[in-house]
Specification:
Elements (H helix, E strand, L loop, with lengths): L2 H6 L2 H14 L5 H6 L3 H54 L8 H10 L14 H15 L9 H25 L1
Helix pairs in contact: 5-7, 6-7
Length: 174
């Protein structure tokens, strides 16, 4: 009977109204209704009941409207904040300098990483770090005999420079 309100109300509210309405319009015989002291009194009771019902419906509607507005405003402010953060990140982002292919290849050879056609695509940050540590240990001047220390020192510096060139390229891929 009241399907229009059932859609907007919770199921409990709709059932409560239906129960109250059913109690109000109890099954009475036609004679009892006719014999009742005043049909006007019954109409007034029903009108009172109907006004309370409409008032309750408006309260529920306002409550849902306020809740929706609150949630909407929270989401809006959250997305504004995220948009502002992304704009700040975009402004602070700096592109790493472009490294020529020959320099990348020579750096990879220094670190004893196999050079492939795709160069840095298969090299992960972990692989690069392991290769750097292994070469740094191998060519550290303190691990070499006295005669080879000068050459090892130069090679050690070149390995550090090669690692510094390749590290931003790995981070850029992520």
């Amino acid at each position: 009977m009241f399907s229009r309100w059932n859609k907007r109300w919770s199921k409990v509210d709709a059932e409560r109204f239906q129960k109250g309405f059913d109690e109000f319009v109890k099954e009475r015989s036609w004679e009892e209704r006719k014999a009742s002291p005043s049909a006007k009194q019954q109409q007034e009771e029903f009108d009172t009941f109907w006004r309370e019902f409409q008032k309750r419906e408006e309260e529920i509607h306002e409550k849902h409207s306020r809740e929706f507005s609150r949630q909407y405003n929270e989401a809006r402010s959250h997305f504004r904040h995220r948009r502002k953060q992304r704009a700040e990140q975009a402004q602070s982002f700096e592109m790493p300098p472009m490294v020529p292919r020959q320099e990348v290849e020579s750096a990879m050879r220094l670190l004893e990483i196999p050079v492939t056609s795709s160069l840095m695509s298969e090299v992960s940050e972990e692989k690069l770090k392991k290769a750097y540590i292994a070469c740094a240990k191998k060519w550290h001047p303190d691990t070499r005999p006295h005669e080879e220390r000068a050459e090892a020192g130069n090679r050690f510096k070149m390995i550090g420079a090669a690692y510094d060139k390749l590290k931003p390229l790995c981070e850029q891929r992520l």
